[in-house]
Amino acid sequence: MEKQNKSSLSDISYEKWDKEFVAQIVIVAILALLLAYNFGRSGTGTSGTYSSGSSANILPSVSAAEIVPSGTPAIYGDELGVKYDDINPSNQRLADATIEKLSSYEGEVLSEEFMERYIIIGSSISCEYCCGAEALIFSNGERACGCAHSYSMRGLAKYLLMNHGDEMTDLQILEELGKWKVLFFPGIHMKKAAVLKANNIDHTDYVNLASNKYRGIEEQALTSSGSSGGMVGGC
User: What is the pTM of this model?
Assistant: First the structure.
């Protein structure tokens, strides 16, 4: 009887061990599937990752429609004969012609009052993705960058000050320059917008997106955001 009891206990012990072993295998398999699924999600899409402190995080998705302006500028578009849509990577000739139109006022001499405002505006934005200058102008108002994009932004700033300076604030003029800068460099601004969004900063505000306010924040992006479009127009 004692031998039989030992045998029964042994059978129960083995049966219990088998069930525990199977359960462990099932748990490991489920965990492996979950890890594979999450890895697959992080490896697809157009977001990429960004660095926040010592950890890497998934970049939120940002569409071109959120940040790339389109249509005709409300105040000056018809006056200068320009549209945001004219800066298009598929039509470099039109893009260059539009940049030339915006640049046509770059050589104008401003009044002392407008020059003070021009220096504030021009010092707040740069063409860092092309010529790498700290700003469009030096502190005395002289050109700090000789690329075509900088010429166009300086020209537009002067035009708006001379013709609409009484109705537009410095911030509004800076915002307009930012819109064109996004059009000149759509790809990098898509990445920058995603990083701004990840940091809970309004990525649709062109001062946040294109001025020197958050210059370099896109460097937090550890991988490509998947956006397309490099520089548009000659540098």
Answer: 0.75
